[in-house]
Each structure stands twice: as C-alpha cells, then as structure tokens.
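Researcher: Going back to the complex we discussed earlier. I've cleaned up the inputs and rechecked each line, so this should be the final set. Can you rerun the prediction on the complete assembly and write out the structure?
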Amino acid sequence: MSAVMGRAPAIARGGSRRLPRPARVGLYAFLLTASVFFLLPLYVMLATSVKPMEEIRLGNLFALPVKMTLQPWAQAWLSACTGLQCDGIRTGFANSVAIVVPSTVLSILLGALNGYALSFWRPRGAQALFVVLLTGAFIPYQVMMFPLVRALAAMGLFGSLPGIVLIHTLFGMPVMTLLFRNYYTGVPRELFMAARIDGGGFWRIFAQLMLPMSLPIVVVAIIMQVTGIWNDYILGLVFAGRDNLPMTVQLNNIINTTTGERLYNVNMAATLLTSLVPLVVYLVSGRWFVRGIAAGAVKG
Amino acid sequence: MASVSIQQLGVRMGTTSILSQLDLDVHEGEFLVLLGPSGCGKSTLLHTIAGLLDAEAGSVHIGGRDVTHADPKDRGIGMVFQSYALYPTMNVERNMSFGLRVAGLPKGEIRKRVERASRMLQLDPLLARKPAQLSGGQRQRVAIGRALVREAQVFLFDEPLSNLDAKLRTELRRELKALHQELGATMIYVTHDQVEAMTLATRVAVMRGGRIQQIGAPGEVYARPANMFVAGFLGSPSMNFVEGLATAASGTPAVPAVLGIRPEHVALRPGSDAFPGARVTLVEPMGAHEVVWLDMQGHKMAAIAPSTGEFPPGAVVGVQMDLARASLFDPNSGVRLDLPPAGFYHRPH
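Model: Rerun complete. Updated structure for the full complex:
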C-alpha cells in the first residue's frame, strides 16, 4: 500500500514546455545583461570603498583593490564631516532609527485600525472617507509641503522629532489603510459577528482578534514603512530639524562637504552604510514578504 | 430557556426591504427551523434576532424582554455560523471561553463551563489545538461548544451543517437533535435543506420572498402544504402537480384545480388497465426504493416503487393515486383548496 503512495512520477517536469534553443540563448543574454547592469555599480562602490585614495587617484574604476583597507568605512562611520561637525554618519543613523521606529509602529497601528473600522464597522460615510484617503496617496508631497510646514509650526512641532514622526505617520496613512482594509475584507464577516455575540466591543475585537490575525500583513507593512521612511530625504530635510536629520540627509551633506580632495572611498562607504538597513530588511524578510503578499492575495 | 416573539418586524438593507410586517412566535424549548431557498430572508431574520442587523420596524422579545435595540451580547443568545467562525489565533479552549472572559466571569466558573461543554461534545482531547488543526466536523463542534458555554436562553444556528460533507452532516445532525433533547433549550435553525428541516424541527417555518408561507409541525407541513410553493419545496423528489377539474362531492360543479400528489402516494401497477398511457422514461435506483419517472400524456410524474426492477424504462404501467392523501390548489394563486378531492378529472393540454 505505502509503495503506491510514494513520490509522484517526474514525467510532467521539463519536456514540452522548454523553450527552443535560440529563444533560450536570448533569454540568458537578457538576464546576464540585466545583472551586469545592476551589479556593476554595486561592484564599483564596494571596490572603491575599500581602496586607499592612492589607488583611486590612478583612475582605474573597475580594478580590484590592491591594498584593501577598512579605514574609509571607519572614517565614514566615525569622523566624516557634515558641514562643520565631524562625527561621521553615525549620528544620522541614530536619528533615522529614532524616526523610523515610532513612525512605523504608529502608522501601522493607525492604518490597521482604519482598515478594521472601515471594513467591519462601516460607519456612515466610510466609503467617502476611504476615497478621500486614497486620493491622498496620489497627491505629490511637494504640493502639501508648505501648508504642512505652516501647520506644524503653528502646533510648535516644526523641526522636532515628534514633528517628523507625525509627518511620516500621516503620509503612511493612505497606503497602510488600503493595505489593511483589503486584508480585512478577506476575513469572513461571520468571525466578526461571532465576536460581537461573544460581547467583544470595538477595541477588544481589534486588539484580541483582528490584530493577532494580521501578522502576515503586518510584516508586509513593516517592510514597506521601514524601507520607505528610511529612504526618505525631502521630508526629513524639511521637517526633522537640524538635530534630527536622518541618515539620507547626512549622507548628502557628507558627499557635498569638500575640503580639498574628494574622498571617494569614504563617500562610497557612507552610501553603502546608509543603504544597509533597507538591504538587510529585504534579505531577512524576503520570504516573509512574499508570504505576506500571497496570504493577502489568495486568502480563503 | 426562553420564548422568542417577533412582531411586525421590518428590515431593510439599503433601499430594498428584506422583511416587512413579519410575525413569529417561537415557544420555549422549541426547535424551530426556518426553511427556504437562498434569498428568502431567513438568514436576515436570524441575524435580526441576534442583533447583528438593525430592525427598522417592529420588535423582538426574548424571554418576555424587549431586546429590539439591545446589543447582541445582552440578548442571552448563542450562535453557530456556517463558516464556523472560530477565532484562528486562539486554541479550542480559548475559543470557547472568549465570551466568558469578555463578560469577566470568575476563572473557576469559566473552567467548569468549558469542561462541561467539551465533555458533552467530546472535545476534551482537542482543547489545546488551534482551529487550523481541526477537521470540519470538529470545528463545527467547537463552534457549538462556544455557544453552549454562554448558557444562552436561545441558540441560533445559521446553516451550520452546509459546509460539511454528506456523512458528517447526518452525524452532526443527529448530535444536534440529541443535544436539543438533552438541553431542552429554545433553538432557531436556518437551513435550505428540507431533510434537515424535517428531521430536526419541532416546527418548520417555510419562507419565501421575506414572508412566512406556512408554519407547523414538519409532518403537518409535509402532508398539508398551504400552497404550491411549500408543496414543491418539501419532499424529494418533489410533489407532482396535475392540472384539471375537481369535484368536492358528487353533484357539486367541478372547479379548475391543481392536484398535488407526492411520489410515494403514486402506486404503479403492471399492465395498463387503471390509467392507460403512462410510460416509464427514467428510473433512479435509491437502494431501498427507486424513483420511477413517468410520462403521463405529456405530464412528467415521479413515483416511488420498491427496488424490484419491475418497471424498466419504456414499460407502460398503470398508475394508481391515493387521492385521500393528495392536495388541491387554486390554479391561479397556488393556495391550498380545502376540499377533499372526491373526484378529479385530468385535463389534457
């Protein structure tokens, strides 16, 4: 009996679906070109960041480093100059963390709450509200910049950490709400009804039932928000204030600060350091990301 | 245990009226089945009793208390849904105790109730499992358990067996009936399955288009349907209808009527003496009996015969109808005519 239930025969694999030879060659040629296109700049950055300046001066952009050194990385992190301060990019890193963590948590919590309220409680005018929120997602930041500056200044939040966190939370709201609303639309309504009969109110059903069920979509939201807010430049530049400038703004300052020779290796190292967080997020969460999207798409 | 009384109930969704001026009384300890095709308003009615939908007009009383505008949790109800609706992140024990924890019952009381319900439903070995680790039948048992621990006055069931396969469905159906006998609680049960309605109900309410067509004991509704819709909806295969003229007693004038006769009241006789011209077109063997489909002068008719293979397709048979157990309907309105069919003349097309 058990022999019958063994492995499925491997007939279906390969065979007829394989592409004819010339098409296959073309496919690989395209894939190779694409990888070179994306990998070459990365290689140049990596190679340059570990070369001493003497080697860079020779101008061989694609040459492998002869005398490898991590000194540019140390300098970028600890002592590169942004304007007058020479503390390296680490202050920017700390600032970015201080901005990203509360912004991500707040925008996800509020987005989930919005999505939950819109899909289960359906208050009067919910549809109109949702449309307005969505419209917000399509209006370019620049249009809203000046009014927001005035509004934050009036609230006394302009140029402060709470100010920039508030801005990121606001700008995250449309997409987060959309994400969670769509996820909760896939949750059977009977589940909500059962919880209502069990006596759950608005907050309890959200906190004890819906939020714990939302893990896959929360992971997706974290990835979107962390990378998005980390990579933000203009909002940080305008709203964060001098003491809270995020890493991206600091990076720009480092690269634009020239006293004598342009330190390409330090610039490259600083750039790589700045992009490290989104990179790690994608590498660590790649599988989760796909799982989250799939869970949202083919639910039920 | 409590009675449920619904008066002049009106419910609308958006601009369409689903129920209007509906009256229904459910007695204490009764198993009432709301039966009807999809879209007839039976689920809407149940959800309104539960407080999940708002009544636009009329009132709902449970146990003599007006709960028309009460919150679902304050109505003393427990409900079981078609999709089980178990909380996926909680294990069986926490699923059952959720409502009790919300209500803030003491821990000892919660444990006692969950233990009792899980023993009744044989869920003890599954208490630590998550819903995803349960089979369909087990999930629905947990859902029933969740309603039981609430010690509700009225239990509401919204097509609870529809998602189960045929074998499990009959099994759980029996368990539900046993549960009702044991608890003696008032139960309201929504289904579109007439077999479930017949087997479970102490009374059936057949619904169509937001109105209750007939309400009564299953046997009564089956034997004396109030109109052609009820007659056709209950029973499988459904009732045969023949148009013609009926006389109530000898001497009275014949009136146009539709004769409704159930397949089990149509007897087949070999030969063609009694009712010439009935030809067997199709035979569906059911094991214990067979359904014989006849072509009777252009009319399609079903009869139930013992599984003897005596009437093969193509055979010409005699048909004998038990007129005493037939029903007569008005051909225009479809409403039952209360005359004993003393004579009936078939009117060919």
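Model: Worth noting: The interface with chain B takes residues 188, 190-191, 193-200, 204, 208-209, 212-213 of chain A (CB under 8 Å).
Researcher: Good, that matches what I expected from the previous run.
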